[in-house]
Amino acid sequence: MSADQTIDHDSWNYSPAKLPRQSKIELRRIHGILPFDGVRNPGFRSSTSHRVWMTYRTAANDFKPKSGIAESAAEAAVAHEFLLSPNLHDLHFQPLSVHYRDEQSKRRTYTHDILATFVDGRRALIFVRNSDSLQKPRTWREIEAITAATPRGAADSMMIVDAGRFSRQRRENLFRLHEAIQTPDPEIDDIVLWTARNHRALWLMSDLFPLLDLPQKTVFKSCHRLIARGAFTANLDHVVAEWSRIEVAS
Asked: Each residue of 226-247: pLDDT tens digit?
């Protein structure tokens, strides 16, 4: 194709330019961090999908940091939400691939998004899909085929998660809450929680700042940890900051 035939994607053709497929990003061993152990590496470069690399800790690994790769921002948000739960024991990204036949009888391979293991021993495979897709009967027929192809011993259940319930702000908040619990400080949290319980006029997070003889940033981080563990409630679809409405959970 000559230069005068090249389509200009900035001036009039507003659809995304089709770029050549790039190789996957392969993580080398990182000192002190357990490696990604999924059966499939979803970390290829994409101009349309948001891949997320993260580290996380679970009781199954003695809370040592481990690498995880999520295939979308919504999938990462689902993982963050599980990681905030005290009932979670372990979490795996891309844990299992299964083979099934689609409606045209073509052989397909599907890799489950997440496997969550809970402290009571239950295991759940997590299927994350956007709202529009979940409204289509074809998607549910695909889910049925995937479920039938998944070995019974792989998990106790399969959870279907609508990515549409994770707004952009909720995804950002879940990320920040997960970051906050990486630096626990139970003594400070107990002080902040006690103060909140005994302050009848509590309305905004900033109401706590003048009541505590602590740096504002210390109280701010503690509030995030308390929201993460469910001791405080806040609207995660809005920015969680000093002007946020918070309440002590009943």
From this structure: 999 999 999 999 999 999 999 9
H runs (alpha helix) in the chain: 73-83, 131-134, 137-149, 168-180, 186-197, 216-228
Predicted model pTM? 0.85
Q: Which residues lie across from 69 on neighbouring strands?
A: 53
Tokens of 74: 């919504």
Burial zone of 153 (CB within 10 Å; 0-12 exposed, 13-18 middle, 19+ buried): exposed
Half-sphere exposure of 92 (CA within 13 A, CB side): 18
CA distances (Å), origin 16, targets 2, 73, 118, 223:
20, 20, 41, 41
Give the chain's largest Cα–Cα span: 74
How far is the CA of 244 from the CAs of 46, 208, 247, in angstroms?
A: 35, 12, 10
